[in-house]
UniProtKB/TrEMBL annotation:
This is tRNA (guanine(37)-N(1))-methyltransferase Trm5b. It comes from Thermococcus peptonophilus. It catalyses: guanosine(37) in tRNA + S-adenosyl-L-methionine = N(1)-methylguanosine(37) in tRNA + S-adenosyl-L-homocysteine + H(+). SUPFAM superfamilies: S-adenosyl-L-methionine-dependent methyltransferases. Gene3D superfamilies: 3.30.70.2580, Met-10+ protein-like domains (3.30.300.110), Vaccinia Virus protein VP39 (3.40.50.150). GO terms for biological process: tRNA N1-guanine methylation.
Length: 331
C-alpha cells in the first residue's frame, strides 16, 4: 500500500495535514519503523517521502451493545435501542421475552460502554409516594449509588432509593434560563435536587421539599458538593409547609399527582409569581384537562391565572406524554 514516511516528531502535524488534504486512507493503523512513522495514503502526495508498506486494519469498536450481544435471532428485534445512564449505572427496560438473556445483555453493555460499571433492568413501574422502582441486577458491580453530572452540576444519588430521570435535563435547563437573579424558589418535590441545585446557581434562595428521607439525605450532600448553601432542604410532606413560603417561582415536578397539590402551590406563590406544573396526558388531549383543573383551583381562591407556555417534555408511555404548563398566578 502507498505510504507517506515522516520522522516521528513530525507525525502528528503530518497526520493532520493528510486528513486536511483528504488523502489519509481510512481503516488502517499507522506503522512505526524506528524513528519514522508511515501513514497509508490513497494517492501520491507532493512534498512528502513516499514508500510502500503493509498496514494492519484498525478494529472498529462497536457503537451499540446490540452488535455484540448474543440472543436468539428471532428475539433480536426486541432488543431496546436505548437505555438510561445515571452516572456510571445503566438502567434498561427489557421486554419479558428478553429477561432470561438479561445477564448477556448487561455484559454486552459493559463491554461496549467502558464508563458503565453496573447494569440493571427495570423491575417495575415507578410507583408509591417516593416514586421509585424495583431494579434487577444484570451485570457489573452490585451497586446502586452513583455520581451523575448534568447541566454543570454533580448529583450523588442511589437509583434504588430515590427518583431520578436523566431525561429531564433539558427541561431543567429551560426552567433555569427563565430564573431571574434574586428569586425565591419553592421546589415542592425536590428529590435529590436536580432542579433545586441548578436553580440555586441563579436564585437567592431555594426551598427544597421532599417526603423521602433518602432524597433529602442526598440533597444535603449535593448542596455541599455543588456549593449551594442557598438551598434549604425540608424533609416531610409538602402540605405541612404550605402557606409558610412566599415564592417567586414554584416547581411542581410530581407529574402523576401534581393536580392534587395545586392548592398548596397557589398558596405558596406571590401574586404575579410563576408555577411550573407537570403532568401526564394522552396524545389526543394534552393540556386541556390540566388547564381546567388549574383554573378551577385558582377560582376557589379568587385568583386569576395567566397561561404562559405549554409543551411536551418527553414521551412517557405509548401515546402518553409528560407535559409541562407554565402559568402566572394573580392574587
Ligand atoms: C417525580 S419525583 C421528582 C424529583 C425531582 N424533582 C427530579 O426531577 O428528579 C417526585 C418527588 O416527590 C416526592 N414526593 C411525593 N409526594 C410528596 C409529598 N406529599 N410531599 C413532598 N414530597 C413528595 C417523592 O419522594 C419524589 O422524590
Amino acid at each position: 500500500m502507498l505510504a507517506v514516511k515522516v520522522p516521528k516528531r513530525e507525525a502528528e502535524n503530518v497526520r493532520r495535514k493528510l486528513i486536511e488534504l483528504g488523502v489519509l486512507a481510512k481503516g488502517y493503523s499507522p506503522k512505526r519503523e524506528k524513528d519514522f512513522v508511515l501513514f497509508p495514503v490513497t494517492r501520491p502526495v507532493e512534498g512528502f517521502e513516499l514508500a510502500e508498506a503493509e498496514f494492519k486494519k484498525t478494529e472498529r469498536r462497536p457503537h451499540s451493545y446490540r452488535e455484540v450481544v448474543e440472543v436468539p435471532k428471532e428475539l433480536r428485534s426486541l432488543l431496546p435501542s436505548s437505555f438510561d445512564i445515571i452516572g456510571d449505572i445503566a438502567i434498561i427496560e427489557l421486554p419479558e421475552e428478553l429477561i432470561e438473556y438479561g445477564k448477556a445483555i448487561g455484559e454486552a453493555i459493559l463491554k461496549v460502554h467502558r464508563h458503565i460499571k453496573a447494569v440493571f433492568a427495570k423491575g417495575s413501574k415507578v410507583s408509591g409516594e417516593y416514586r421509585v422502582r424495583e431494579l434487577i441486577h444484570l451485570a457489573g458491580e452490585k451497586r446502586t449509588e452513583t455520581l451523575h453530572r448534568e447541566n454543570g452540576i454533580r448529583l450523588k444519588l442511589d437509583v434504588a432509593k430515590v427518583y431520578f430521570s436523566p431525561r429531564l435535563a433539558t427541561e431543567r435547563m429551560r426552567v433555569f434560563e427563565k430564573v431571574q437573579p434574586g428569586e425565591i424558589i419553592f421546589d415542592m418535590f425536590a428529590g435529590v435536587g436536580p432542579y433545586s441545585i441548578l436553580l440555586a446557581k441563579k436564585a437567592k434562595l431555594v426551598f427544597a421539599c421532599d417526603i423521602n428521607p433518602w432524597a433529602i439525605k442526598y440533597l444535603e450532600e449535593n448542596r455541599k458538593l455543588n456549593k449551594t448553601p442557598n438551598v434549604i432542604p425540608i424533609l416531610g410532606d409538602v402540605r405541612k409547609v404550605t402557606g409558610q413560603i412566599e415564592a417567586d417561582r414554584v416547581i411542581m415536578n410530581l407529574p402523576k399527582f401534581a393536580d392534587r397539590f395545586l392548592r398548596e402551590a397557589m398558596l405558596s406563590v406571590k401574586s404575579g409569581g410563576i408555577i411550573h406544573y407537570y403532568g401526564f396526558d394522552p396524545e389526543e388531549d394534552l393540556f386541556s384537562e390540566h388547564k381546567r383543573k388549574i383554573k378551577n383551583v385558582a377560582g376557589e381562591f379568587g385568583f386569576k391565572v395567566e397561561f404562559l407556555d405549554e409543551r411536551k417534555v418527553r414521551p412517557y408511555a405509548p401515546r402518553q406524554f409528560n407535559i409541562a404548563i407554565d402559568f402566572r398566578v394573580w392574587k
